[in-house]
Amino acid sequence: MKTKYNLICVIIYLFVILSSSSLYSQPKVVVTLLQPVSNQLSPEYLWSLELENKTGNPLDIYLKVSLEEQTKGKIVEGTSSVVRLNPGISEINYRNLENTLSWIDYELKDIIIKKGDIPTGSYKTCVMVFSSGGDLLCTESCIINDGKNEEEEIKIVSPQSDNFQFSEQITFVWTGPKLKVN
Prior knowledge:
Blueprint: H1 2-24, E1 29-33, E2 49-53, E3 59-69, E4 73-79, E5 83-85, E6 88-92, H2 94-97, E7 101-103, H3 106-115, E8 122-131, E9 141-146, E10 155-158, E11 173-175
Antiparallel strand pairs: 1-2, 2-6, 3-4, 3-5, 3-8, 4-7, 8-9, 10-11
């Protein structure tokens, strides 16, 4: 009888320990990076994100951000200053981070800042959230934005320029970007 009682106590103890550890293993902060418009990486879309503080208490945090292109490597990286993240959802964007960035590729900096129209390539935007003490509060969040390629540009197919004749009714045929669904 005593053995059954001890076994039941051990099972209850393990259940409590395992269930409480799963509560503490959930991230304290959830990052949602917002996908930029296709072929655009202008400052308003660069690191446009939502941070959700799930703790119920204010947190002092800082962000580490980066942008890299698959073949060129890192373009820019930065570490924000420590800010207070109140419970709930907060929005962060490029303007909150621009003074903390270190640009590595100045040619792409000019293109991104002035035009926002990125060259062909695969761009990865990442964010990590740390407590003011340096502890990582959530896993790294990244999104990939594929820059334009020739297949995605709008082109006139018909009538061809060397074959053009005026008539009462002209019909143009166009091709455009393919819709990517993930």
